[in-house]
Amino acid sequence: MRYEADMAIFHAILSAGSFSGAAANLGLTHSAVSKRITALEGRLGVQLLIRSTRHLRLTNAGELYAAETRDILARLTAVETEVAEGAGTVRGRIRVTASNALGRMHVVPALFAFMQRYPEVEVDLTLTDTVVDIVQEGMDLAIRSASLQDSRLVARKLAANRRMACASPVYLAERGTPQRPEDMHNHACLRLNLAGSFNQWGLASASGQRVQLGAGFSCNSLETLHAACRQGHGIAWLPLFLVKQDIEDNVLLPVLEAYRDATCDTSISIVRPHMHYVPNRLRVLTDFIVDWFDRLAF
Predict the structure, then answer these.
(1) Strands 163-167 and 235-239
(2) Which residues form the HTH lysR-type domain (predicted)?
(3) Straight-line distance from the first to the last Cα atom of the chain, in angstroms, rounded to the nearest whole number
(4) Which among 53, 102, 110, 170 could bridge 292 via Cys, Cβ 3.0 to 4.6 Å?
């Protein structure tokens, strides 16, 4: 019986988008892959894939087979990995994603420390300020500083993600320090131009209305906004993990702290897809990251 192998080849084709791509990824010949799919379709008595020289698509039966076997294959792979890892052994590849600022400052050092302790682990890290669908992209873990709304994911809190308005002493000396949230419309405000709740500054006005922010610079990089804020170009809404040292050194000063709405704070979490079997390497790395963030004072 070669059910598992045929199932794996079938999903490799879907992942690669072609027979030749799957063959290359699996280290097989194109003809070997084609023969296994033909054998699978023969055993099932249905056509799973419609292939032409340029296109590849699933039949209705193929869509059903793909949906029903995806979790089965994942569980088999996880169990085999767990057995192969053995008791006390941590090895294998782990795909991780995190935002740029959080990743460079805190996640990257943690990952290198982890790899030093477990040299048989290979980490593949993607840094991006775009929220990645880790299920769709095949990621193992994500470190996020936003609210978790996807029921397909399992999260563990790493730290509070407190954010605040801050500016450089140079900017405040030139433009003055805002005394009320309503004053913000007269100031240069540095904002992320990404979709989502990033620009919902948690400042509560006396009237309860949304604070109107003044015109200023915007970009898609939190680190760039941080640099612009340090250089005196305006007021920014930044996370404490990014500005803590600057505030302690008086490079940046908090603004309107008395009006900061703590209910707008989120959490920094480590997130993984829901799975029946969690590989040992993911459990160990998750615990390591949790301990690492416990030692960070922000």
Answers:
(1) antiparallel
(2) 1-59
(3) 55
(4) 110
